[in-house]
Structures are given as structure tokens and as C-alpha cells.
Amino acid sequence: MANKELRSMNRAELIEIIYALQQEERSIREENEKLHAELDEKILRLDKAGSIAEAALGLNHIFEDAEAAAQQYLDSLRVVETEAARILENARQKAEQIVTDAEERARQTEIRREQTEQDIQQKREAFIKSVNRTVEEYAGLVAQMRESPGE
What we know:
Elements: H1 3-8, H2 11-48, H3 52-147
Helix pairs in contact: 2-3
């Protein structure tokens, strides 16, 4: 399965793959146990056989079958391990990307917060100046009115 395909899968699909691989592993183990049982049965038959040559020929075939089954089992475990490593690496990369994105968003938010604080400070200062001018103008008008009360 291609790395890109794994990256595009969601968690449920990945779990489904792992479950299928576990089922396959279980099946291979059962087959291995069955082959071991057959091996034991054949060994018993060989014990009953009178000829050492016949026993040796039979054992060769049995051991070859057992070795092939064991190799198949090991190969399937390697496939499962490789897939798990790929999935883990993909998850690690996604986690790093999420952290990087979150840090960038936090940095941008901090910049916007600082800019907003500056804007508020400027507007506050402008408002205070405006209020002070208005108060000064009002005080000037009051002073004029006091100087010329009857006009």
C-alpha cells in the first residue's frame, strides 16, 4: 500500500487495516498449529514405518512444509510491522504539522492582539485630546460669558 494512500486514510480505515492484518496473522498461526499437528501425526507414522530411508524422505518433506509455513508467518509479521511503522511515521508527521500550524496561529493572534492594543491606545489618546479641547473651549465660553454678562 502506497504511503500516500495511507496518509489519505482516516483513523477508522487504518484500524480496519490493522484488524485485517491481525486476522491474517491469527489465520496463519492456526495454519501453523495445524501443520505442527500434521507434523506430529506424520512423525508418529514414520515411527511406525520400518524403513529409515522412508522416514528420512518423509521428514524432509514435513520439515520443508513446516519451514515454509514458518517463513510465511514471519513474512506476514514483517508486512504488519512495516505497515505499522508507516502509519506511526505518518501520524508523527501530522502531529508535527498540527503543532507547527498551531504555533503559527498563536503567533499571528499575538500580532493581531498587539496591533489591536496599539489601535485602542491611539483612539483613547485621540479621545482624551478631543475631550480636553472640548473642555477648554467650554471653559473659554464660560469665561467670555462671565466677562460680558449683560451684553
